[in-house]
Fold Lipopolysaccharide assembly protein B.
Amino acid sequence: MDFDLTWLLWGLPVAFALGWVASRLDLRQWRIEGRQAPKAYFRGLNHLLNEQQDQAIDAFIEAVQGDPDTTELHFALGNLFRRRGDYDRAVRVHEHLLSRADLNRKERDRAQHALALDFLKAGLLDRAESALSKLEGTAFENEARLALLGIYERSRDWAQARAIAEKLDSAEHGAFTTRVAHYLCELAELAHREGQAERVRALLDEAVRRAPTLARGWMARSALRNQQGDAAGALDDLLALAEQAPAALPLAARAMAELAQQTGRTDPVLRTLGNAQARAPSIDVTEALARLAPQPEGARGMYLRHLEAEPSLVIASQWLAGETLSNPQAQSSVQRALEHASGPLRRYRCAACGFEARQHFWQCPGCQAWDSYPARRVEEL
């Protein structure tokens, strides 16, 4: 049977034509899909810039459905869910990213960090801790350690906080020596409640050694020595505080005066307090000096010297208490009024958030900032 070449001649052009039509259809479909995805993406960006988060989320969901392999859209969508407070959906987005086998190491670490932030914002501290711990050795290591430090402080896990702070300090990601000293003092308080006297002393010795300019370590160790009957050693610690952390002397002035009376070492204490008062008058230092003031000047003389150097309603109220007016009933009423008016002026105020308290805090109970309370009262700020 002879082969008819006519069919071949007709078949080649037909096959070429069909291939060309198919390629044009595929190209057209690709262009349509390529245009739809960017439109949804840019529409989401536009909503985001206009602070229309709900509309932006809808647009990004549409874009992700059109191209499920786009990791950047997944990250954008997850961050929007987190900012909106929809933490469950944010977690699902980032867990979906982590489950993808085609994700490279850099993007996987990024998804792990985003997932940890989801748990942290949702208040799931145990899950956040677990997620953050997996970022050790990654590009997000420093951020993860800082977040872990915040978690351990909130949960008052001072041993873990100390370990993380020491890692940050050794990695030169900031100065955390003072923070470590605070943690040591917190651990010393826990050990004191458990009756571990030797451990308390060791922790406070280390706190003083690590951060000699932190007043808390000196004051805590002084209080411990005084409880153990070593009043002389307790006073030595406070005198060392005056040299290492002179700005914090008002916090220790009262205890210093009491120890001076116990030990009979009033001269060095009067000299130390007097020098501090000459540099910057302080209510607490004046009260300590008034307690130790020799006659004939006495306490009233100390109060007057303070008022001459710096006006103070608190000191004026204390000076008036030692005066005798012609009308005792009027004096009593005036005294109560002054004490009532000066009461709020004796508080301490956080320099970070403005939270006021009657006592001095090393860590603000309002904003959780460390060393944000000045050693001076509200009236002196």
Remarks:
- Confidence is low (pLDDT under 50) at residues 29-37.
- Residues 37-155 form a domain with the Serine Threonine Protein Phosphatase 5, Tetratricopeptide repeat fold (CATH 1.25.40.10).
- The chain is about 70% helix and 0% strand.
